[in-house]
């Protein structure tokens, strides 16, 4: 995967526990283009890679902007960026990838929870530039915890943005049911933030009979939900199976108690892994034969049913053999 070396042109604190990084090419050349909803891999340290959404206008090519929330249970990524990476430092990143793209729609509803505002900011910039209809609703614990408030207030699309603070008065509280009920059925919904926030949006939309193909989401960091508590991707009764590497025909055995990605790495077949929960998409691998046992929080039901890709960091196999496009 393509990697770039960039310079931290600016670093600043934008809200409680949120640092913003502006990244530029070391020679001040144009950076690879990106689309709304894209993210980059940030190589924080050897073997430590984290994904952060790009939140600046996708029409820009002179910089990438990311917002990083310091995770109170950090595993080294956000803490290192907050404490160790400074202005003018050089860091390695991956070229932009987009697993959360905008669909063509007459109207879009952007629903952000906390740091989940970052990809939706990028979407708002694109939709405004394209002259498309949209509304942005930004939910946060308080004004002090809401990043990019000044930027949103100064944006030419500020009239489309609405803030909802947990400690605010009842008149500004986020009322999702009413919002969905009042939205035209051709609207596409995009939501990003904590797992509980996303689950609430997805389940409420389902209760109102919304087409799942019109509800798009992207999780941030570790996930806690009814299906995945963020701590264990193995399950009682897991069975061993084999994977075959299509390019060489090599067969690698995957024991019942280890992830596919670990089994591959033990045999010198290394794939990018970051979240290890099927959230970030770093490890997505094409499946040529066999039936995956999907345990991710990334793919839609339709994508899972296709059985042509899976997340080897957490997913397994229902068949005795999976043939991987490696």
From TrEMBL:
Oxidoreductase recorded as keyword: yes
Residue ranges constituting the 2Fe-2S ferredoxin-type domain according to the UniProt record: 241-326
Entry annotated with the keyword Iron: yes
Domain FAD-binding FR-type, residue spans: 1-103
Names of the cofactor(s): FMN
Keywords for this protein: 2Fe-2S, Flavoprotein, FMN, Iron, Iron-sulfur, Metal-binding, Oxidoreductase
Superkingdom assignment: Bacteria
Pfam families, sorted: DmmA-like_N, Fer2
The protein, known as: PDR/VanB family oxidoreductase
Organism this protein belongs to: Herbaspirillum lusitanum
